[in-house]
Design a protein that fits this description.
Layout: E1 2-7, H1 11-21, E2 31-37, H2 41-51, E3 55-57, H3 60-65, E4 71-74, H4 78-90, E5 94-98, H5 105-117, E6 122-125, H6 132-140, E7 147-155, H7 161-165, H8 185-197, E8 202-209, E9 215-223, E10 228-234, E11 243-247, E12 250-255, E13 262-267, E14 274-275, H9 285-298, H10 303-323
Parallel strand pairs: 1-2, 1-4, 2-3, 4-5, 5-6, 7-10
Antiparallel strand pairs: 7-11, 8-9, 9-10, 11-12, 12-13, 13-14
Length: 332
């Protein structure tokens, strides 16, 4: 059993813990919560008691050197991901870090190298690529014939945007936290396309910047040899439209690019629709937890995951460059 600790005590941490406690069907539990870190030790103790974890930490160095912990799940603000991941990896801890794991390609490359130097696993928690319905998309691309276009969208009005408009300072709209639309929900669009088609040949990006300097929404065109992908992402407006991958023989319709709730095939005349979706766990994070544990047990970073993480980081870095979204870490 892999003994893991968490950095972060928010809702997504609770969801990850639940995912480890309730693995996908026909799989045994591979991970058990052992420790909780928070800068506020009382908060760590409350969270640990709630989830029956025997160890608490309010010092990152103590967590990194603890012999009671094999792996760490990191769900802190984006701006802390790189330094916290690097510290844990350098001390021999396996790391699964929430997306985006880094704010630049160079940071991602350094984390993978640190992991390899210390014979541990580094893994970006991009849950979509491990869902049953993501595999459905992969397995049905050939039905489309030659792919010609794709429109991938994730536009969701942020529950924190009214607070921002009222003058508050939610992390999600400030560059100090390496945040904004492309780093948050736009990530799912870019990562999906990199996972399916690899790194694009060309990148053209546009964004609407907020007064803080991060993007509230934007569009990206990714060019490949025979087709182009249009990405629309927003945290300041919403959409219920499905995403679509179009080929000469048919199309795939994807409901929610992050969760892949429903996958539909239709022919090139827009007729003969067929539902392709497979059953998925209510907690989609159980699949990425399993993928992380499998790498630990195999003692090897899956190169497919590494390549996807690096390609996604490179595309998003270029998007930020073209749209002038600048983070403090960019100068480091």
């Amino acid at each position: 059993m892999i003994k893991f600790a968490v950095i972060g005590t928010n809702w997504i941490t609770e969801k990850f813990i639940d995912g480890t406690n309730n693995p996908p069907e026909n799989h045994a539990q591979a991970m058990k919560l052992q420790g909780v870190y928070s800068r506020d030790i009382e908060k760590a103790e409350r969270f640990a008691k709630q989830h029956q974890a025997p160890f608490t930490f309010d010092d990152l160095a103590s967590l990194a050197t603890s012999t009671e912990i094999d792996a760490v799940y990191i769900a802190s603000p984006n701006s802390l991901h790189f330094e916290q991941s690097k510290l844990m990896l350098a001390h021999g801890k396996h790391v699964i870090c929430e997306k985006p794991s880094c704010s630049s390609l160079e940071q991602a490359q350094e984390l993978y190298q640190t992991a390899k130097d210390n014979n541990v696993i580094f893994f970006e928690a991009y849950m979509t690529a491990h869902l049953p319905n993501f595999k459905v998309i992969q397995n049905n691309l050939t039905r489309l014939g030659k792919v010609r276009k794709a429109h991938i969208q994730y536009c969701q009005y942020s529950s924190r945007y009214p607070a921002y408009l009222a003058g508050d300072k939610p992390n999600t709209f400030y560059p100090e936290f390496c945040n904004g639309s492309i780093m948050d929900i736009g990530f799912y669009c870019v990562a999906l396309i990199c996972a399916l088609f690899g790194k694009p040949d060309t990148i053209k990006a546009q964004a609407t910047l907020l007064e803080t300097g991060v993007d509230g929404c934007g569009s990206v065109i990714l060019g490949y040899q025979d087709f182009a992908v249009t990405i629309d992402h927003s945290k300041i407006s919403g959409s219920s439209q499905a995403s679509e991958i179009q080929g000469e023989s048919g199309s795939l319709l994807i409901e929610h690019v992050g969760q892949c709730f429903n996958i539909m095939y239709q022919d090139n005349k827009g007729q003969n629709q067929q539902t392709l979706s497979q059953p998925q766990s209510d907690n989609s994070m159980c699949y990425e937890a399993l993928a992380f544990a499998e790498q630990i047990n195999q003692k090897k970073i899956n190169p497919v995951y590494e390549v996807r993480t690096l390609q996604t980081a490179q595309v998003i870095q270029e998007v930020r460059k073209q749209t002038a979204v600048i983070f403090p870490s960019d100068s480091q």
